[in-house]
Amino acid sequence: MTAVFRDAAQTVVNDVRLPKSKGGHMPIDTGNLRRSLSASTTAMPNINADKAEFSENNGQITLTIAGANIGETLYFGFQAAYARRMEYGFKGADSLGRVYNQEGSGFVRLTAQRWPEIVKASAKKIKAKVKSR
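The chain above was modelled as a monomer; its predicted structure follows.
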């Protein structure tokens, strides 16, 4: 069960950051939004409005997932201040007076709604690995 839980969580992380150019829903310009994803088992990662540039942190995410057990909650959150706009879209003027009419990409919502099928696929994958031993 733990292996399925961890594999499904890693699949969610991979899928939520999959670029539109590769069949996903994440808009990629510089890759900063993608790199701003963080993981925790204690609380939702905070938006870091003071930080403009994020470093690659796949290791932190993978280690958090690898250390999680059944019954624990895994929190994944984008720390880039503009993540919400990219997810839901934004119409109107921002605090600097710039006007936007930006559609949301739904990369989080569209991945999250697939959770049941992701778990099924992970269970099938883990079961096949166990049988092949």
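Strands lie at 37-40, 75-78, 89-93, 99-103.
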